[in-house]
Amino acid sequence: MGKENIQQPEFLFAKKNYIVMIIGLIIIALGFILMAGGGSENPEVFNEEIYNWQRIRLAPTLVIIGLAVEIYAILLNPKK
After folding, report:
1. CB proximity list for 34: less than 8 A, separation 6 or greater
2. Tens of each residue's pLDDT in the chain, 80 residues
């Protein structure tokens, strides 16, 4: 028996797919980081900062964009 029958394992995705996936994960992480915070030092005092534009609009939009980038990375055909 020769070595010509041995097959090399193939990765599920190509390098380009993994790069786009990492970019998507960075965007999602940035969205969650922007969503964090807004707490108050004193629990008896309500902090209006929790309703600012960054936490209500920007951060969830970044998370959704990051998820869309992840879907694109999965569907991306690297052979083209």
Report:
1. 54, 55, 58, 59, 62
2. 556 678 877 778 889 999 999 999 999 999 999 998 767 788 888 878 888 899 999 999 999 999 999 999 999 987 77
**Long-range CB contacts (within 8 A, 24+) of 56-59:** 58/31, 58/34, 59/31, 59/32, 59/34, 59/35
In the DSSP assignment, the letter for residue 5 is: G
Domain ranges of the chain: 13-38+47-75
For Cα atoms 52, 33, 47, give the angle at the middle one, nearest 5 degrees: 35
DSSP string computed for 22-74? HHHHHHHHHHHHHHS----SSTTS--GGGGSHIIIIIHHHHHHHHHHHHHHHH
Would the pTM of this model clear 0.70, i.e. be above it? yes
